[in-house]
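Input chain follows. Return structure tokens only.
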Amino acid sequence: MSAVADAAHDRVLGVDVGTSGVGVVALDREGRAVARADHGVPLLTPQPGWTEQDPATWLAAAEAGLRDVVAEVGADRIAAIGLSGQMHGMVPLDADDQVVRPALLWNDQRTGDAVREIEAAIDRGRLIARTGNPAITGFQLPKVVWLRRNEPDAFRRTARVLLPKDYLGFHLTGEAVAEPADASGTGAYHLAAGAWDDEVLNALDLDVGLWPRLVRSDEVVGGLLASVAGRIGLPPGTPVVAGAGDNAAAATGLALGRAHPEVGSVSLGTSGVLFAALDAPTPEPEGRVHLFAHADGGFNLLGVTLAAGGSLRWYRDTFARDRGFDELMAVAADAPAGAGGVTYKPYLAGERTPHLRPDLRGSFHGLSLATTEGHVVRAVLEGVAFSLREALDVMAPLARPARWLATGGGAASDLWLGIVADALASPVARPIGPDGEVAEVGAAEGAAWLAWRAMDHAPARGPRAARWVEPDPARAEATAAAFARYRPLGI
């Protein structure tokens, strides 16, 4: 199915199914955000290490956000809807397309035994060569194996499994699909073939029919169902575009990919992510950094630290509830590079790159009677930056962008940008929009750009940055010494 926007339809919508909420944005033809809405969703933690969400809360939040934005923009101006969302989650549906159990999320850590079952069935090196990654607790495939082992009745009822954004797309259109950028984060997708991996699934005695048909990221997968259209105020049949997983979508919003491999992105959201584009599906031999398909038809490396902005939030919620983040940043700014010898390891939820160990735990080292709160808060900021540097060191033989666009809540801090620039030894900048002002560019914006692409509106554009924050030579020696302390601790 394809479509072309006419002159009257000069807005597209992007929807991002996040962990903390669902965001909806409207973009004009130049990429300016003209309306935005966000609605929160609850997180379920029934046991330590388990993270779940009720998919019905995504649908309610998405419909509320779409309704808000459509009312502000005007239904007659909307050309299409693009989708994005948290990667790796598992939504099991029965034969009547009803949700079997709450969705398991990307940061769920219950699947250790399932990972070992996968590793026993498929040689690790072969799995990395085919799917770009080893078996990882957060991925979707171990969740399916876990379901079969631990909830057999639920597994027997499961007729198909969808990713979070694709479940929303199914709700909007009645079409069950997946696209490469998100599918490649399941652990069941053959990167070079661009298809579900029969060899992997056969080795695990899993039916490939559990997974939906594959489409392009910029493909119109269906029209908006009348039942949903009436609730959100859009015409039935409004095109819905497949979109991309959140990291690929965010990179699309920043115009990052094969056309501009010299620029990568560093996200300082709840987790921290380094994105670097690749032309070919070339995995890191040990699988220490993720390799996924990108929404532009190429590929990308992702280095992931699980608690970036999450580390600062944890510190604030645990030790400084009466203060805001700006105040904590001001306190940290008074501390020197190296944080007075204090080192923080951000392993609050285990760690991905480069350790791939859910059992790692966070810690502070080097505390003394001379330690101030400024040292401790700066150590948190530096520890996150050093975890990103460890990811970069693994990525560098395959791809090393010369510059980085910074996104996420942590990117609002000049102090943290400077610390990240020092740690990566590369310039870092916030992205700007078409009007030259610093812009919020996230997964919802990227989903909207993919909707424009599906409508045959793809203006030439490249990465756009505000003032570049350069690494500070005056801090180089202290930064190097602090990173040398950081690397061996807590492993």
